[in-house]
Amino acid sequence: MTHSKLILFLLLGVVGVACKSKQDVEPPETFYYRTLQVNGQSSASMSFRNVSVKPVITVSFTAPVQKESASMSIKLTQKNNAASVPLSFTFSGSDTIVTLTPQTTLAPLTAYQIEVSPTLVSQRNTALNSTITASLLTVIDSTDKFPRISDSLLLDLVQKQTFKYFWDFGHPVSGMARERNSSGDVVTSGGTGFGIMAVLVAANRNFITRQDGLTRLTKITSFLTNNAKRYHGAFPHWLNGATGATIPFSAKDDGADLVETSYLMQGLLTARQYFNSPTNADEIALRKSINDLWNGVEWNWFTKSGTETNLYWHWSPNYNWDMNMPIRGWNEALITYVLAASSNTSAIPKTVYDNSWAQNGKMANGNSYYGIKLPLGPAYGGPLFFSQYSFLGINPHNLTDTYADYWQQNTAHSLINYTYCKTNPKQFVGYSADSWGLTASDEQNGYSAHEPNNDNGTISPTAALSSMPYTPTESMQALRFFYYKLGDKLWKDQGFVDAFNLTNVWFADSYLAIDQGPIIVMIENQRSQLLWKLFMSCPEVKKGMTNLGFQSPNL
Fold first, then answer.
1. Do 207 and 261 fall within a single domain?
2. Does 6 fall in a domain?
3. Which residues form the Glycoamylase-like domain (predicted)?
């Protein structure tokens, strides 16, 4: 072989070896997850709800998993305390699929997180390309938390236990209702009005004696007369329950609140009609105190001293009319106009009602939602307290005026709210025909007026329970669910807590006077119409409502 041929032969051999080596080298591996399923279901958001307490979690990968790394790299933890749940692992699909099952039963209605960290490696020792996380929310425990009793006894229990908020927790000096269970000396004028009506229910149902109720209301009226600050006869929203001094509700709201005053007067006038003995000196004295407080409110002065046909919500000794908030419908303040027109001393004319409240018809709605026609107010009706606060005393049965049939209005509003929650367009956890009701209440990070156009998954028990006269079947269904199914989380010493959010697994630890009071009162109005009968028996109310153009067999 010539020298040149030998060199060529050797070169070809080297090239051949090089080519063979290239073919033998495996390509670089990518290792990432393909799917994560819980009980056979996927979620684009990696958020799984209504998960069984014995879930099967399956994760598939692009390459076979090194089994030894799985137990160290895949964790299931409870979100609220980071407690780790022991897992069992099985492998399939040539070890590309890992199936996880908890070794213990998960807690119901609890948030968990599954995490797969990059310490997981493939059988070729390639690390997982990124962390995988998914959230799990387990199902509600559907077992009864308390023994079943009759619906009538359950209503008794709810009224009696909720009443403890006003009776046991009433301010020791003034007897007035504290704003909430954490408010110390801060008492509320409007919430006290609701609490006064609750005292009447308690006396009438023998939760307390009539004399006990009379003693408490005498304490309250004495404080209101002798200690509480008033502005042209009207009370502030908040007071110091020990001294009667005004506590500002907001920067410029440091004087009269006419709407809160109307809630207080609604309660006082109802109490005047209840404690009606012609011979009992203490009941006679209570009626006189109530009349003096009632006649002292200068309702027409809140039309800016009679210069306007608008009735204004606030007046401040420091800021005058700066808040500039005319009381316009449709909302919770119909009672303010009814009482302003009913005053013996300073009644407003019908022109103020038409111009300011009804806005000459602009408060009308007339649209249908879920096939239910709504006469008045915003789309979907707004928060449910619109159909409750004024109607603790005003009986909406067969009540009409130029603008609406008020039984139709309040029933439609309640049914729309119920149907919205049952339909659950935003897919919040726990909304159903059993669990519904949006209104103003506490929420996880504050307070808000919840309604279909302001819905974040927060349900307030007062919403459905205080709708009892309008939706007796639906409200009773909600009451059973709140008590029997969620009672271990909702039912406490002073009734149902203020609100809950099952999507976030949050339960309030608060009570609010303006939410607890309507539960007692509106359940009673459904059962006996007690408060409706008492308030509508006031001769001033009959005259005032008639003057505004209302028609009702009760007037």
1. yes
2. no
3. 326-539
pLDDT of 82: 82
DSSP secondary structure string, 467-509?
TTTT-HHHHHHHHHIIIIISHHHHEETTEE-S-EETTTTEE--
Domain boundary among 110, 138, 166: 138
Query: The tokens of 99 are what?
Result: 């199936």
**95-154 pLDDT, tens per residue?**
999 999 999 999 999 999 999 999 999 999 999 999 999 999 999 999 999 999 999 999
CA atoms within 13 A on the CB side of 96: 12
Residues 488-497 have pLDDT tens digits of: 999 999 999 9
β-strand 47-51 against 132-138: which pairing, if any?
A: parallel
> CATH no. for residue 306?
1.50.10.140
**What totals of helices (H) and strands (E) does the chain contain, helices first?**
16, 22
* pLDDT tens, residue by residue, 315-331: 999 999 999 999 999 99
3 in a structural domain: no
* Torsion, CA 222, CA 532, CA 518, CA 524, rounded to 10: 110
CB 224 within 8 A of CB 154: no
Please tell me the number of Cα atoms within 13 Å of 417 on its side-chain side.
35
Alpha-carbon gap, residue 480 to 502, rounded angstroms:
17
At residue 239, the 3 state secondary structure works out as: strand
Tokens of 317: 């000794």
Q: Which domain holds residue 199?
A: 151-548
pLDDT score for 541: 98
CATH number at residue 46: 2.60.40.1220
